[in-house]
């Protein structure tokens, strides 16, 4: 069966996953993490993509981003992916592929899932047993949102600004939200939607997306779907 083209719609948040080939490590040291973040900052700006959240794990990466154009995310991911592979292969004296094929992504309904997706991203190192508290992990956006550092590559989503009227109030509310965790159902939905490429949201949201693209946005019969989702 042919793979679905990636679903990309300008102005909507996208959850993106890029894995190492065969789950192999894609970072060998601090410089590698810093290099990938610098590349993301550079190409997010060049591609007009607002990066809201990220986590760099040993063998995969999660991003939450909103593009201004339909080409934005593909351009950013292709540029970063190719350049990082060249850098990593040269540094490690290796050849061949580093990534597990193309990146996976989908759209998520901001009002229902964006903050949960940010918490899900932040909690990856906790679920993996690397740290007990997401604030202990250096390679995610969590510290920025709780006021422990200023991360230039990030563009907070408007829903983050609604958490409070002052920086302290927003940071405290965000820390409390992440501390409350993500339900197993939300975790499963966020993971599967990104890996499978189906939009994640309520029926009205999915129906509205379908009117904006020729590509199917949810599971259904083959062929062009009905707008009734």
TrEMBL record:
SUPFAM superfamilies: Transposase IS200-like (SSF143422). GO terms for biological process: DNA transposition. Residues 9-124 form the Transposase IS200-like domain. One of its GO terms (molecular function) is DNA binding. This is Transposase. It comes from Caenimonas aquaedulcis. The lineage of its organism: Bacteria, Pseudomonadati, Pseudomonadota, Betaproteobacteria, Burkholderiales.
């Amino acid at each position: 069966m042919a793979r679905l083209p990636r679903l990309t719609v300008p102005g909507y948040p996208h959850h993106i996953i890029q894995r190492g080939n065969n789950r192999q490590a894609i970072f060998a040291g601090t410089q590698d993490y810093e290099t990938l973040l610098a590349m993301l900052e550079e190409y997010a700006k060049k591609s007009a993509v607002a990066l809201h959240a990220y986590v760099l794990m040993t063998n995969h990466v999660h991003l939450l981003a909103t593009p201004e154009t339909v080409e934005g995310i593909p351009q950013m991911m292709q540029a970063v992916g190719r350049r990082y592979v060249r850098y990593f292969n040269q540094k490690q004296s290796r050849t061949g592929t580093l990534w597990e094929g193309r990146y996976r992504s989908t759209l998520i309904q901001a009002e229902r899932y964006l903050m949960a997706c940010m918490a899900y991203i932040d909690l990856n190192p906790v679920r993996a047993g690397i740290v007990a508290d997401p604030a202990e992990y250096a390679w995610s956006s969590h510290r920025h949102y709780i006021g422990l550092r200023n991360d230039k590559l990030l563009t907070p989503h408007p829903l983050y600004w609604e958490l409070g009227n002052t920086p302290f109030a927003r940071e405290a509310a965000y820390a409390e939200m992440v501390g409350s965790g993500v339900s197993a159902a939300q975790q499963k939905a966020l993971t599967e939607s990104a890996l499978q490429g189906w939009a994640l949201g309520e029926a009205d949201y999915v129906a509205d997306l379908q009117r904006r693209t020729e590509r199917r946005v949810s599971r259904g019969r083959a062929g062009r779907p009905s707008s009734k989702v």
